[in-house]
Amino acid sequence: MTTPTGPGTRALDACPVDAVDVHAFEIPTDGPGGREQDGTLEWDATTLVLVRAHAGGRTGLGYTYGDVSVASFVDSVLRPVVEGSPVSSPPALWERMGARMRNAGRPGVGAMARSAVDVALWDLKARLLDLPLVQLLPAHHDRVPVYGSGGFTNYPLDRLTDQLAGWAGQGIGRVKLKTSRDPEADPRRLTAVRRAVGDGTELFTDANGALGRKEALYWAHRFHDEWDVRWFEEPVGSADLEGLRMLRERGPARLEITAGEYAFTAQDFANLTEGPAVDCLQADVTRCGGITGVLEVAGLSAVRHLDLSAHCAPAVSAHAFCAVRRLRHLEYFHDHVRVERMLFDGTLAPEGGALRPDTSRPGLGLDVRWADAEPYRVHGVRPPR
Fold first, then answer.
1. Of 18, 306, 319, 356, which sits 20 to 30 A from 225 (CA to CA)?
2. Rg of the chain in Å (alpha carbons)
């Protein structure tokens, strides 16, 4: 643990945020021909929007994955709210940011911007107190189980099977592939994956909302009966609550229907729990309001007797989701693992199928690798040394 040099707990109320700066980096994908595909989208790059908050001689960082316009939203709407405010209570600033966003738009870009700032404020507070973030949060766990995720629809079979079998070989007991862009190609892909990972590895699928209701029900039964798939993520669009409920009620009992990665507000999550529409709820710390948002969703999941699974952003989620009582697991997503390793020192690697926060480093334990990040910059200016 570092030697305390920042203000003590009582002094945080008198310690204002000196400045907030924003950066964005666009990292090309490493998929075939520089592209990746899922059931409904094709992309050639992943953009990470980085927010830094400064106070008391320390710097906290947070980030989200979205369009570069998220960075502009932070600069124009949220930065004026945060600068000059005390660092003692990130949830209080989260509330103030929400009020400031009313006419600018709370879901979507606004929610991602608030998420990145909120994470930076929690990281800053933890660093000022010389605590790892997990120890500042109301933690129920000291590690977060993971599942390997990638398996893009444009991967050739050898890359698909090598990737998923590689995770299984590392002791990760659950792996997920993208499906449903070309449903007739999925049986061949699933057969190859099941053979590669063996019968002892749980197999998950993600349609990214590509299917209609009856088509999704057909594939739900085939996925379960032929390949023992246990997790069917967004078989229909996440806004189709009636369709999700139908699939949950009429699909195989051991195949879980899941959604939530595109939930931005508390009401979005409440809607998914009505019925409920899902067997397991998902939340993305970089979209749902940051650490403060995750804590709200965690309470909802506990009250509704639903497990909560973390969507991506492993370097942040490993800390945040230790505070989720009904924790299921974390999506160890290929793109985000790769981007975070490129841009930060202090990222985590799975051990025994789980990520354990590093309690020897304050905050998230991350440091920006500015020299490595600079070639990918699309917003902001590199800080002086």
1. 306
2. 20
Report strand pairing: 367-368 vs 280-283. unpaired
Please name the residues in contact with 76: beta carbons below 8 A apart, sequence gap of 6 or more.
Answer: none
Q: Which of 54, 176, 178, 224 is catalytic?
A: 178
Question: What pLDDT, in 10s, does the model give residues 218-240?
Answer: 999 999 999 999 999 999 999 99
| Predicted TM-score (pTM) of this structure | 0.95
Report the first-to-last Cα separation within the chain, whole angstroms. 24
176, 224, 311, 334: the catalytic one is: 311
91-140: pLDDT as tens digits: 999 999 999 999 999 899 999 999 999 999 999 999 999 999 999 999 99
Question: Reading across the β-sheet that carries 58-65, which strands appear in turn?
Answer: 58-65, 45-55, 19-28, 377-379
DSSP state of 16: B
Question: Of 149, 146, 77, 148, whose CA–CA distance to 108 is shortest?
Answer: 77
Is 176 catalytic? The answer is no
Exposed (0-12), middle (13-18) or buried (19+): which is 18, by Cβ within 10 Å?
A: middle
Distance CA 246, CA 218 (A): 12
Contact status, residue 247 vs residue 257, Cβ threshold 8 Å: yes
Specify whether the CB–CB gap between 27 and 339 falls below 8 A: yes
The size of the chain, in residues, is 385
Whole-angstrom distance, CA of residue 110 vs CA of residue 55: 24
φ/ψ of residue 92, rounded to 5: -65, -40
Residues sharing a CB contact under 8 Å with residue 12, sequence separation 6 or more, in sequence order: 86, 87, 88, 125, 128, 129
| Run of H or E including 342 | helix 334-343
Q: Catalytic site residue 178?
A: yes
340-379 pLDDT, tens digit per residue, is 999 999 999 999 999 999 999 999 999 999 999 999 999 9
Strands 42-43 and 344-345: unpaired
